[in-house]
């Protein structure tokens, strides 16, 4: 039982829920649910399974590649603490990535866009984990690209929509770049320059969401959600700027990750899908609960 719990801890369950919200936002953007007589739940379920496998597999390999460093900085994690062996974690991570790719491959017959995106996400996650994580520019960009591609994976439920809406994937790229920039000081404390940079990146994301909501003419609900989004990410970040200690930076990172759900709900509202926005918001309490049980970072 202890080993099973350890394997589960490696997947960061609370974060996986945020990845599901990416998919639901992408499906909303694609317009898949607009024709109530023609959609099927099968591709929705497959895409949810795909993102869960891809995200979980990616974060498992984060700990696999960081095993030596974690033995010094985070000895309580499953691999350095001996709860899960590095070999078992590697097999677990590969299994999850393969499940994610296979699920994406079965979303459509005759279209390869979903499986191509799933492979791209897996590759980006491994490249980030192995080589880019500690690079000042490549690290945030690669991690952000994983999230941007994940949004596109949701949009790929309607393959033609990927061509129309691919620029929207740049928003999560910028947002995750902000979170990754903040997280650099999580262990030893950070410098205020990185945190101020994150504020600027957050502001860019918020301005983009507001602008797009107004353009789409569904701004009322979207603005409400964006306000909640701001209220979740900014207070802990301001505290971290005032006192850039490791624990406060960790709280700012945790808030940023969980707030992805509200950002995705805002996308759904901006595209006029109020009920789906509500469903996405309901993922937030579940993610917060899991965050109390399992580490987010």
Automatic annotation (TrEMBL):
Key words, A-Z: Cell membrane, Membrane, Transferase, Transmembrane, Transmembrane helix
Membrane topology: Multi-pass membrane protein
Localization annotation: Membrane
GO molecular function: transferase activity, transferring alkyl or aryl (other than methyl) groups
Gene Ontology CC terms: membrane
Superkingdom of origin: Bacteria
CDD domains xrefs: PT_UbiA_1
Signal peptide: none
Listed transmembrane segments: 12-34, 40-62, 83-105, 111-128, 135-158, 164-183, 195-215, 221-241, 248-268, 274-295
Any one Pfam family match given in the protein's UniProt record, by short name: UbiA
Classification via PANTHER family: CHLOROPHYLL SYNTHASE (PTHR42723), CHLOROPHYLL SYNTHASE, CHLOROPLASTIC (PTHR42723:SF1)
Protein name, UniProt field: 4-hydroxybenzoate polyprenyltransferase
């Amino acid at each position: 039982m202890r080993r099973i719990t350890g394997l589960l801890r490696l997947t960061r369950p609370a974060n996986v829920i945020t990845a599901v919200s990416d998919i639901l936002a992408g499906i909303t953007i694609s317009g898949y649910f607009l024709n109530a007589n023609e959609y099927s739940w099968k591709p929705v379920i497959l895409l949810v399974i795909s993102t869960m496998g891809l995200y979980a597999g990616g974060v498992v390999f984060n700990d696999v590649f960081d095993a030596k460093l974690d033995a010094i900085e985070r000895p309580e994690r499953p691999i350095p603490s001996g709860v899960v062996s590095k070999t078992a974690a590697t097999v677990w991570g590969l299994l999850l990535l393969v499940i994610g790719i296979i699920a994406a491959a079965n979303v459509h017959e005759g279209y390869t866009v979903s499986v191509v995106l799933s492979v791209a996400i897996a590759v980006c996650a491994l490249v980030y984990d192995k080589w880019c994580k500690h690079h000042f520019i490549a690290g945030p960009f690669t991690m952000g690209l994983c999230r941007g591609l994940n949004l596109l994976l949701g949009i790929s439920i309607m393959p033609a929509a990927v061509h129309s809406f691919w620029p929207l994937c740049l928003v999560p790229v910028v947002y995750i770049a902000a979170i990754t920039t903040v997280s650099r000081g999580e262990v030893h404390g950070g410098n205020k320059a990185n945190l101020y940079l994150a504020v600027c990146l957050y502001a860019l994301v918020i301005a983009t969401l507001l602008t797009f909501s107004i353009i789409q003419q569904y701004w009322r609900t979207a603005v409400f959600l964006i306000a909640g989004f701001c209220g979740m990410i900014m207070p802990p970040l301001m505290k971290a700027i005032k006192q850039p200690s490791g624990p406060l930076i960790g709280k700012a990172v945790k808030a940023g990750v969980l707030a992805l759900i509200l950002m995705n709900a805002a996308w759904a509202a901006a595209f006029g899908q109020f009920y789906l926005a509500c469903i996405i918001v309901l993922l937030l309490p579940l993610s917060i609960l899991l965050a109390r049980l399992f580490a987010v970072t």
